[in-house]
Amino acid sequence: MPGALSGVTVLDFSTLLPGPMATLFLAEAGADVIKVERPGRGEEMRSYEPKWGSDSINFAMLNRGKKSIAVDLKDPASRERLRPLIEKADIVVEQFRPGVMARLGLGYDDIREVRPDVIYCSITGYGQTGPRAAQAGHDLNYIGDTGLLALSCGTTESPVVPPALIADIAGGSYPAVLNILLALRQRDKTGSGAYLDVAMADNLFPFMYWAFGQGQATGTWPGNSDAQVSGGSPRYRLYATADGHFVAVAPLEQKFWLAFCAAIGLEQELVDDTVSPERTTRRISEIIAARTARELQPVLAAADCCCSIVRSLNDAMADPHFAQRGLFARPLTNDHGQEMAALPTPIAASARGEGTAASRAPRLGEHTRELLGPEAE
């Protein structure tokens, strides 16, 4: 059975993370993704460390199942060779600063003259308009500018950098895919294409729905790690064990809270955490700090109280639960014949179809001759 996006052609001008992850998802669903790279070095992520084969592991993870053509976008003759691909492109994804593609003659207005119903998705940090539109930034800047980082950023002595690239993935990749699919559905009904302005910073506000609402409704805005889900409650925080591990404690509902308190033997006078949250937190810290993770794990598991030992990524990949669900069963290969687990994607098995996900990323310019002809090499 073909994938859900079988027959859809994507022309991908994006680099690094947000765009390539979005087009990875589209490729996983059966779309034909053609990655446009600069000749010689290709996109920047190919040169990242650590290397895995000829290119970086980051590039291999994000670009499997795609085709690669090498085109000098600054050269008018080279750009003209893209015309046959533009004519059949259902979707164009780009990630340059605002105005760059237009200066290259590849902006939305240029592309839709050739393909009127194209869906053109631009991914940037701050969007195509507004005072910050041309400003450089990275994930840490976007989450800092939107107030997300301030909700839980550690202390001045030990500031905490989040381990996930939230803006790039949750603010860029996922909204790009969501809106591309909505635009495809709309095109099915109207025959019209669309221009999609995906701003990573804009898309972070839904992740703060609780703080967004609380601040406006009460006039009291959450601060650094002082809210219920950011470490301000005994019921939702990390507690250190005797052997240097952490317990993720999240028994927000009363039934789970009572089960947790009983499991660890918390004194009855401290169970009502509205009386003195600080005392309750301090005592739980003492109890957990006196036990090892190995001792606590079966106790918490038996209590079924939304509490668990924080695992390393390596341990998580060895979890029988994820193995049974097949998350890491798909192989990723490189040009040296090495193999590892491919990055899992959120694409449902029914949407992937059969044989729609190749096991390796393309070599630079591997498909230039095939797609643009021998004179393009």
UniProtKB/TrEMBL annotation:
- Give GO terms: molecular function aspect only: transferase activity
Source organism, top-level taxon: Bacteria
Xref: Pfam families: CoA_transf_3
Give the start-end ranges of region Disordered. Answer: 348-377
Q: Mind telling me which InterPro entries this protein's record contains?
A: CoA-transferase_III, CoA-Trfase_fam_III, CoA-Trfase_III_dom3_sf, CoA-Trfase_III_dom_1_sf
Basic and acidic residues: which segments have biased composition?
363-377
Arranged from A to Z, the UniProt key words for this protein are: Transferase
What is this protein's name?
CoA transferase
Question: What is the organism field in this record?
Answer: Tianweitania sediminis
